[in-house]
């Protein structure tokens, strides 16, 4: 990472921290915002939170690893959250996960080498009537089929070319 | 179908719940707003984006009032026609009306359809009718009337008494009498006191709390303020899953509006009451649905539960008396105050009063949210309201209560659902997920699924839960892979019973339910996996082989078209063949075959 990018990142950390009083009970909220901003929790962010609310780093680390919403490694530009709630499960969410693996070579928890895609399973999106479903970043894709998922992946792959990268 | 044109202002309600949004309802809403704002349209309308109507299967839904027309599966492309025909000339567009698959009849209003006709809405009363972002909309449907009544006419003891008389029990799963809980909180001497709304809806397969927080956030807020008055609380917290971004957004808007109109803050409505609410976004941990774990999480700790020698009503948040209720419970409170405990208690069964919202999902035709009186039978819910099993397949079981509940087989379909009957049946109410399963669902795999889920969600604090689930999962994995032994079943039973007695919190004590209930009702299916290395439902991959039966196969080619891995071949009008080396057992061929020609070996 360049020195400039690092500086910008540090500035963003501080901006998020300053939204909250320096109290222990806001650790979760601060981490949520950081995860939203950076798509993972960089080590520096955990250190900053710990010193900001004045608790040992181990405590912030224990929370970052306990709660499922957080990741300590960067997620892809497009993060597929495949719902594996019961309704999605009995309608074949495992097939969807397999198809993504076949196409992108990543299993839940992994990110493609180019940093474009990552996949994780989530317990329930609360979109059970649309099972099986996945969320790509913020967008819900309902009623997936094993052939439909390939089209969805391709539509996001297309975006890369469209932006000229 | 020509109707008298109504010149009064029409209201167009576009369902913008999560289900409809995913199907494109925002595009419909925007198209309506945009096209209705042009000068060419000479019709007075008011368009609202509402919360979830519950009938997600037919979304996006558009309702036109007061004509009472419901259009289903609406696309943004349909908007010009809706404006030109229905809004300007009163003509109903037949193809957008719901068509009953059995009678082939079309229905003008959703009120005429079985899915809604048999429901009784209390907690969901406003959802789909009002704009959740508008406090005026909520007030126009008797909103904050209960709060005024409480502040002006009732003492706090009278409020608690009313809630006790209503017989309301906690809708989050445990079914603890709400009034008793409030009374315990009010009689504890310590202060300050707190009120918490548990919106950490963790049960996979349940989304009623999401729907209420998104579609009618003020009812939750009003319920909490009434409780604050009853027990003398100064602050409230709504703990909501961060994944529910729309719920967080709508709750935030609602809290701000309530504050600016004097329903929250100091001297609420000119009374002595001072109370405010803060939102806490959860971190995605199932165990945080357990009240002591949730409290730990709000305090800024990892969400581990503690043993409840002392209840949160005495020592809860920051060691102070705390009332914690589920979203749906809060939504019932204003109704109890407005209509009176007696009327509320006239609905339901002896031990369970009022209604319950169920999320009817899985292998059922009308998926969505349904609210019915306690005591309604499973058969009525699944077959009359839900329309039965799709694709002409057979009902196998219904799972209630999420990972803490169990699977109920066909011979118990006439069970009248309430808190007590479900526990007697080896399951529990939980938060109200009803997951319908057909003959293509493997019960062993379902037990494995829940064990796997719970293994990831057990906080690890106590040994029976942490180690017990792991051991169960290992055995179930073996059985699903064809490596099970008959004595495993006894061992599963033993582990399960130990966990039920020895675990620290309700998560561990109820965790064996999915395994024990399937073992009890579907033992044959377990034995088939173990003894014959066969998965009758065709789900466990190592034990499944699909083949095409030459007799019914007509060579139509539908399976070839839908196979994602090109494993099926065959000439047109001749029997097709599945290449076992390529087949990934996804079941698309079975699902699409109209002649029942794909079989499971």
Biggest interchain interface, per-side counts: A-B, 47 and 58 residues
Level-1 CATH class name of the largest domain in chain A:
Alpha Beta
| Rg of chain B, alpha carbons | 26 Å
Helix/strand/pairing category of chain B? alpha/beta
Structural class of chain A: alpha+beta
Chain-averaged pLDDT of chain B: 92
Mean pLDDT of chain A: 87
**Quick one: biggest sheet of chain B?**
5 strands, mixed
- Figure out the total of helices of chain B: 24
Assign a percent range to the helix content of chain B.
25-40%
By CATH, the topology of the largest domain in chain B is Rossmann fold
C-alpha Rg of chain A (nearest Å): 18 Å
What gross morphology of chain B would you assign? Answer: globular
Number of domains of chain B: 5
Distance between the termini of chain A: 19 Å
Architecture overview:
The complex is a heterodimer of chains A (165) and B (601). With 165 residues, chain A is an alpha+beta fold. Chain A folds into two domains: 3-66, no CATH class; 78-162, 3-Layer(aba) Sandwich (Glutaredoxin). Helix content of chain A is 48%, strand content 11%. In chain A, strands 2-1-3-4 form a four-stranded mixed beta sheet, with helices on one face. In chain A, a hairpin with a 2-residue loop joins β3 and β4 (139-141). With 601 residues, chain B is α/β, with parallel strands linked by helices. A five-stranded mixed beta sheet of chain B has the order 12-11-15-13-14. In chain B, β13 (395-400) and β14 (406-409) form a beta hairpin. In chain B, α9 packs across α10 (217-231). The termini of chain B are far apart. Chains A and B meet through α2, α4, α5 and α6 of A and α1, β9, β11, β15 and α17 of B.
Describe the structure concisely for a colleague.
With 165 residues, chain A is α+β, with helices and mostly antiparallel strands. Chain A is 48% helix and 11% strand.
Write the layout of secondary structure elements.
The complex is a heterodimer of chains A (165) and B (601).
Chain A: H1 3-17, H2 27-38, H3 43-53, H4 57-66, E1 78-83, H5 86-90, H6 93-104, E2 117-122, E3 134-136, E4 139-141, H7 148-162
Parallel strand pairs in A: 1-2
Antiparallel strand pairs in A: 1-3, 3-4
Helix pairs in contact in A: 1-2, 1-3, 2-3, 3-4
Chain B: E1 10-15, H1 18-22, H2 25-36, E2 45-50, E3 62-65, E4 69-71, H3 79-89, E5 98-99, E6 106-107, H4 114-117, H5 135-140, H6 145-153, H7 156-166, H8 178-187, E7 194-199, H9 208-215, H10 217-231, E8 235-241, H11 245-260, E9 276-282, H12 291-298, E10 322-326, H13 327-339, H14 341-345, E11 355-362, E12 368-373, H15 378-385, E13 395-400, E14 406-409, H16 419-424, E15 433-438, H17 443-457, H18 463-480, H19 486-502, H20 506-510, H21 513-521, H22 523-532, E16 546-548, H23 558-562, E17 568-569, E18 577-578, H24 588-592, E19 598-600
Parallel strand pairs in B: 1-2, 7-8, 7-10, 8-9, 11-15
Antiparallel strand pairs in B: 1-3, 3-4, 5-6, 11-12, 13-14, 13-15, 16-19, 17-18
Helix pairs in contact in B: 6-10, 6-13, 7-8, 7-10, 9-10, 9-11, 10-13, 17-18, 17-21, 18-19, 19-21
